[in-house]
Amino acid sequence: MKLDRRKFLQGLGATTAFTSLSGLAPGVANAKTRGSHEGLLDKRNGEIKYHTCARNCADRCLLKFRVQDGRMTYVSGAEEQEKTGTSPCVKGHAYVQYTYAADRILHPMKRVGKKGEGKWKRISWDEAYAEISSRLKQVIAEHGPEAVLPYSYSGHEGMIGKYGGPCRFFHKLGSSQLDRLVCVFAAYEGLKSVTGTWRGPDPEDNPLTDCYIAWGQNETATNVHGIKYIHRAMDNGAKLLVVNPIRTPIASQADIWLQPRPSTDTHLAAGIMKYLVEKDLVDHEFIAKNTLGYDELLQRLNDISYDEVEQVTGVPREKMFEFARVYGESPKSVLRLGYGMQRNFNGARMSRAIAMMHAITGNFGEIGNGFVYDNVQADDGMNYAKGTASHLRTNYKTAQHINMTEIAKAIHPTNPTAYGKPSKPIHALINYNGNFVAVAPDSNACREGAMRDDLFLVVHDFIMTDTAELADIIVPAATQFESDDYCPDYNCYYQQICEKVIEPVGESKDNWTFFKELAHHMGYDDPEFQVDHEGILRDFLDTDDYAYKGITYEKIAKEKFVRVNVPKPFFGDGKYFTESGKIELYSDYMKKAGFDPVIDLGLPEEEMIKEERELPFRLLSPAIPQRANSSFYNVKYIRNFPAYFAKISPVDAEKYGIKNNDRIRLNNHRGEAYFVAQVTSQVVPGTIMAPKNNWRRMDPQGLNSCTNNLTTDKLTDMGGCSAYHSTRVGLSKA
User: Pfam family example for this protein (predicted)?
Assistant: First the structure.
């Protein structure tokens, strides 16, 4: 059975003082100059292990760890891989401290008080396995296997850690299937309606473009190593254009930065297209040869006025015209679409409009041209069916699906639902690679569900998260550095090694070891539970996909990173993946979904309940450079980087009497959250920005609040994706 990554994701269904290891985390080693600390410099010596950063970041850095006497001492970038270079980001530099954190969970624990009281009893692994397997068997006997739900996402992005190990267990058990659609999938649908794919050209060719457009992307948070390719393009004379409602560092460097109101991107793209058409800056030859529906597009653009575009977006038309002129006059342009902007109720429709804009300028099919969103060629080419042993699941067609964005609804105490319909109650939940009480939207409702006495909650993690503190059983997880794995790129075109750097610390176990041993306690004796890590990796590589032609387990082990086979230039053959084989400017696919088949101008506020729609501020909750989703809160010095601030425009601050460093309260019908105000022109009036996925238990004001207390769990227009940014809030001083 052919099963690619996208289909697979849709179908998946008391801490101890760490005194013995806390001193191992080194400080910052200075260069070898007079007065440098030789003891710290010695940390840079030792055996080298190659390991890929398995966080959910587009960089996918290949790292080199130094190991002395079995202990990790230092991390640097693998300079032999040009895209990574010599240095990780601020988060990657913290991996030694991350691994040897003083509050790391080192042994299994059982709750002995009420949920959330923080009262735990140390138990053995045998006791933990006996308790977990016994409770799972009881739940299955009383309610059926669909009463068990896995919850996970990107705490570990390795092929085994995220997929191969855990999924074998849940396939065999026959659990409910978790649809891991929280990210990317709205734009997948929008882009599929234009070119048939969300894949694109190699970002390592960006220096060859004449114009680089960052649309809704903040490279400093999730693609910091990609900035060097942008700068090389600029050194070669390329223009930098940025579209973002937040002034990012890249926006500050741009030749032109457009700052539209959140989720008005369809109007903005339509306005730019209208100008390109009127000034004859479109590529007529490309349009005639490669597209369908151009006449329908022209008719639709005639219905859209610049007055409407300016009023909706807040972008002055002259500035939009300047942007369009530079873009249209550039011989070659690369557009990088960010992930955050598609997390809106109109995410697919916005993504479609932006891709159409790039098509009528003819920016496909040449080196230095193209549309970059989610380059999963290295990922999709692997054999997911065999790697995850999907054949073990006998209820693929009948098991219920739970969207992870709607986890609060699925575990609701009295009225569980999924996709707007009643669902079977969940009585056991195993959380790994995730922290849903902090990460999922509507955190208060998530916590309420997790607090149910009839929900058996198991958490496999290495620190006490918001979710772990509500668990019945906590089992200690190894970090990614304590097992072997692979980690495919999803920006460039690489498959990369994750060598085991150190042995598991304390009594921790990696994901495959935990689920394999739990399977044995459940009585599962299938051959798929007898293999080691290498066996699973070989299963993933047992593929006839062209991307992996000539790539073997031995080749990856030897070379540490390999480039998968992707023809260049992307779309160079003029063949697209739509049903027509053309770029579809008129789309029956969109029409069948209930939207305008050319350009749909619907806005999120039209879909909000009146109670929320009338609140004064749109809340944006993007990533910040010092965190990766909810990770790195165990690193002391990273905790010192603020994650509980809210950026407010000077106009709004004056209106509400807010000054820098004032404590403020944001609220809506889902709850409230408390922040420290930062008054800045980084955001437009009517918008507030607060970091995503901060923890309730880390709230510096001690009020158990976080950004996701406020965010919506309503899904996007297409793709079942999260729509965190389609949230409105009120504001007051705290």
Answer: Molybdop_Fe4S4
